[in-house]
Fold:
Amino acid sequence: VLESLKGVSRGTLCIAVASTVNYFAPRLMAIFQQRHPGIGLRLDVTNRESLVQMLDSNSVDLVLMGVPPRNVEVEAEAFMDNPLVVIAPPDHPLAGEHGIPLARLAEETFVMREEGSGTRQAMERFFSERGQEIRHGMQMTRNEAVKQAVRSGLGLSVVSLHTIELELETRRLVTLDVEGFPDRRQWYLVYRRGKRLSPAAGAFREFVLSEAARIALPTRVIQAV
Ligand code: PGA
Structure:
């Protein structure tokens, strides 16, 4: 009886998240764990393509990701803003300029995430929908590597604002004020359609939908959206 009053106190919960969600997922898990100390939590961090495979093979309880898949039947509920921004090193000639025309980016090189990255997909879609060609530079499989590459002057990139909170604070990177940016996107809580959520998964779903935005949105993100 006590157990039912105190909420879910047992079970293991497997959560898989996009690499951009990794920047706040542990914060959510810490709070959730305090409230449900009996639940064992597992976190898998990977890119969009692997997340879609996990949903397809039903090998995970819940997924937090950018764009939900179309080729797998899922339930998808938006829970937080995910603005994408153009990043540059602080000494870049465009840093501090206002209203940079999109066409100006044709002169720049872009550090790219790997095929299979949701960020890359969103970035390519953004430019192609506007008929804007961009020059691809080096390709990297981690947000961290992309940020270091941009800092080192290898090019610009487009990333989720959540991935650069610390770099903005310490001025190691800046965002560029480019026409059309921030690209306003959202994160979704996703699971296979028809899946019977365990009590632990149900509790986490409720928690994310009702509280994640308040807990995880950094001030700069709130200002940008
Ligand atoms: P990814 O994450 O770029 O690591 O795939 C972003 C997303 O799925 O939105």
In short: DSSP finds eight helices and ten strands in the chain. The longest strand covers residues 74-81.
